[in-house]
Amino acid sequence: MVMISHSVDLIPNSDCIRALSLGNVGVFLFFILSGFVITEALETFYKGRTTNFLINRFLKIYPAYWSSLLISVVILFVFNDPILAKLTFQSILSNIILVGQYLKLSDFSLISITWAVVVEIQFYIIAAVSFTIASYQRKKWIFPIAISCVTALYAYVFITSSYTSFWGICSLHLFSF
Rounded to an integer, what distance in angstroms lies between the CA atom of residue 123 and that of residue 141? Predict the structure, then answer.
């Protein structure tokens, strides 16, 4: 669905396909499936070890992301792309740590699809915090509350079109300094 969505301009008379928003549906399905897999991992393999879970997620995401970032910079340098002029110390640092937008270092993202990884990181953190609270407090009611909060945040982002200014929870500008 996502592939079709990204290539819809190559399909003649594709207005009816574009109207289906298949890419959005595919992304939502991925996040739903990912939610089941991640919660099962926390419940089964990382029970009581959320720190190990977060370390594992860090090692899953960051080395691949940093490799992609380095390859992107090399390609931009080789082709002397004018986008290199936008790179400042703050924007480079922001891109390296991936969540520099939380710290208001820079809104410039060298890799445009980074938003998906930031949303993934947000999900991992929310899931880990929820499981930690539930395991230490032995209170299972934390999960419906966490789900309600995340759903409310998503509704807020969608209703206010905040996703156009930033990704996921960051669009709330909770961390403005």
Answer: 18
Contact 65, 80 (CB under 8 A): no
Please check whether residues 99 and 59 belong to one and the same domain.
yes
Q: How far is the C-alpha of 142 from the C-alpha of 48, rounded, in Å?
A: 16
Note the pLDDT tens digit of each residue in 16-41: 888 888 887 887 788 788 888 888 89
Q: What is the pLDDT of residue 172?
A: 40
What does the alpha-carbon distance between residue 125 and residue 153 come to, in Å, rounded to a whole number? 15
* pTM of the full structure: 0.69
Are residue 67 and residue 89 in the same domain, yes or no? yes
Cα 26 to chain center, whole Å? 15
Chain centre distance of CA 44: 24
Range of the structural domain that residue 26 is part of: 1-45
Number of domains within the chain? 2
**Do 146 and 132 have their domain in common?**
yes
Quote the CA–CA distance of 159 and 157 in Å, as a whole number. Answer: 6
81 and 109 part of one domain: yes
